[in-house]
């Protein structure tokens, strides 16, 4: 028959449990003064106690002090308390990467034009007739951004003295095709500088190329046309390109609705009798 635990070993266990209690550790056992809930006694040999692992220590151990030899009692493990959920910290609002890095202090349209120079940075320079930098009021509250020179911006019926018109690329693509990705990435930094210098209240993107360039998106323009968006802290609205209106006259009514939103923000009066035809 196996020997019961010695009094010396029992005292060591009792001292260790008291030490845990003083530390406030209550995950391994309940109050040692509580009555054991199990009627089964574990009679451990001394060499078995030495083999106890951390997981086995998670069983509740209680010591009683009867008149005879002490015994070691065990009950079912005590479930660990559930840790409270920690709320995620809010993200602090701040300037975008474009605003923080790309803006040039004391920049002017003249400096932008000088930096552009007789540009040969992309393949469009080999087929262009001239560089079309921009046109209109350099202090305009409204900037129209097209895809490239050669389109009929006048189809919108606005006077150049009231607005500023510029394009994603400054050289007309061959056969008036859309600018390609490498051409846009090369030329668009000059466009961003133009917008920063003019500091308009509203930007209107004419067509998908301009909208995707400023908004850095691959979504089709029909998914956000006519909605107020944001570019560098300024209000932006995308609408159809004038060249598209020449091919699809019924779309003029949609563009007119978009322009009415712009005029309302700028406090401009919509002339009576204005139609989309």
Please describe the structure with a list of short key phrases separated by commas or semicolons.
alpha/beta; 6-stranded mixed β-sheet; 3-stranded antiparallel β-sheet
What is the element layout, followed by pairings?
Elements: H1 7-23, E1 41-42, H2 46-49, E2 60-63, E3 72-75, H3 97-102, H4 109-116, E4 135-136, E5 142-146, E6 164-167, H5 181-198, E7 202-206, H6 208-215, E8 228-231, E9 234-239, H7 242-247, H8 252-266
Parallel strand pairs: 5-6, 5-7, 7-9
Antiparallel strand pairs: 1-3, 2-3, 4-6, 8-9
Helix-strand sequence: HEHEEHHEEEHEHEEHH
Class by helix and strand content?
alpha/beta
Helical content band: 25-40%
The number of distinct β-strands equals 9
User: Count of helical segments?
Assistant: 8
Low-confidence stretches: 28-67, 80-101, 151-155
| Main sheet: strands, sense, barrel | 6 strands, mixed
pLDDT averaged residue by residue: 75
Query: What radius of gyration results from the CA coordinates?
Result: 39 Å
The fraction of residues assigned to DSSP E strands is 5-15%
Through-space gap between termini: 108 Å
- The backbone outline, from C-alpha atoms, is elongated
**Strand ordering within the main sheet:** 4-6-5-7-9-8
């Amino acid at each position: 028959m196996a020997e019961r635990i010695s009094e010396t070993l029992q005292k060591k266990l009792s001292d260790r449990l008291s030490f845990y209690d003083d530390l406030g550790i209550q995950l391994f056992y309940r109050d040692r003064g509580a009555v054991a809930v199990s009627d089964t006694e574990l009679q451990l040999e001394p060499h078995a106690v030495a083999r106890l692992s951390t997981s086995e220590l998670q069983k509740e151990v209680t010591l009683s002090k009867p008149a005879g030899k002490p015994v070691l009692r065990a009950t079912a493990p005590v479930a660990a308390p559930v840790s409270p959920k920690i709320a995620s910290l809010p993200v602090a609002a701040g300037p975008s990467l474009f605003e923080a890095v790309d803006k040039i202090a004391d920049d002017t349209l003249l400096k932008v034009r000088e930096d552009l120079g007789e540009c040969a940075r992309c393949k469009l320079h080999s087929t262009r007739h001239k560089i079309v930098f921009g046109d209109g009021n350099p202090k305009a509250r409204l900037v129209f951004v097209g895809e490239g020179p050669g389109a009929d911006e006048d189809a919108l019926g606005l006077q150049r003295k009231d607005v500023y018109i510029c394009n994603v690329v400054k050289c007309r693509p061959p056969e008036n095709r859309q600018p390609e990705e490498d051409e846009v990435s090369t030329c668009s930094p000059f466009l961003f500088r133009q917008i920063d210098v003019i500091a308009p209240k509203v930007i209107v993107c004419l067509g998908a190329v301009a909208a995707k360039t400023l908004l850095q998106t691959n979504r089709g323009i029909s998914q956000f046309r006519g909605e107020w968006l944001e570019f560098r802290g300024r209000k932006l609205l995308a609408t159809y390109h004038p060249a598209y209106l020449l091919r699809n006259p019924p779309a003029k009514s949609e563009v007119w609705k978009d322009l009415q939103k712009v005029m309302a923000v700028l406090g401009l009066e919509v002339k009576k009798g204005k139609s989309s035809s």
